[in-house]
Here is the input.
Amino acid sequence: MTPTRVILASPRGYCAGVDRAVDTVERALDHFGAPVYVRKEIVHNGHVVTDLANRGAVFVDSELDVPEGGVVVLSAHGVAPDVYRNCTTRGLRAIDATCPLVTKVHTEAKRYAADGYTIVLVGHEGHEEVVGTMGEAPEAIQLIGSVEEIDRLQIDDPDRVAYITQTTLSVDETVEIIAALRQRYPAIVGPKKDDICYATQNRQNAVKQLAQEVDLVLVIGSQNSSNSNRLVDVTRELGVASHLIDDETEIDPAWLEGIKTVGITSGASAPEWLVERVVAYFRGLGVTDVASHELVDEDVHFSLPTALRRATA
Here is the structure.
């Protein structure tokens, strides 16, 4: 038996920060010409990176790998202050494509550190966003990724503790960690508005509703995409099978055995044309019933980086 119905989650796919970052590289290529260097992956999606590389973008691990005087775009995940200093020293034309919602977290880190707080950062060790945030105040920030890790915190003054979070975490898991922090440190303070971004929240809420109507959820996104992995986690926690795929070629036919309705969503760094390819795969299996589950209409838009707007004015 093959599936007879496909339901698409909405919202899904590109968030405003990713759309801005990808658009930044494309416009930089149009204006400056190739090569335009990009520090790390501009967003965590292999297809997007390959597409931009084919257009002339050169992806490097460090700004130190960019020839002096070159054009370099800094990824949506944000960078530590020393990266900006290195760009200046090397005479690079740096275009900062950091998502404004990540910049918000950086600003919070600097403010809490300046006020003498020990900062607890909730996030995934090694993730580029976490590395950049910790670089704002390395002497003041301690990283945890679970409730269990709270025990290893070394807090000298429990009355001067603050927390911030990575923007792409599981909403439910983060709420649990923050609640445990508040219980351990009653005086702890945090941002007035959650650090987890609107797109991460919306996509997790949408997949929760989707999971109630389907037998299987396929999440389109790359393995190194934090928010895409969280969509899989959220779905599985609800008892519904879920798999992360880069595209339709990674669908295992065994997953579809006994499945009537398939739900499809995509992480915030996955372009819509990948969704269209997966839908085409199921149409090729004979599925004619393709519906969309609408949750909220996103109308968030971020303007291009100032450096790029000035250069192209």
Remarks:
- The mean pLDDT is 97.
- The longest strand covers residues 5-10.
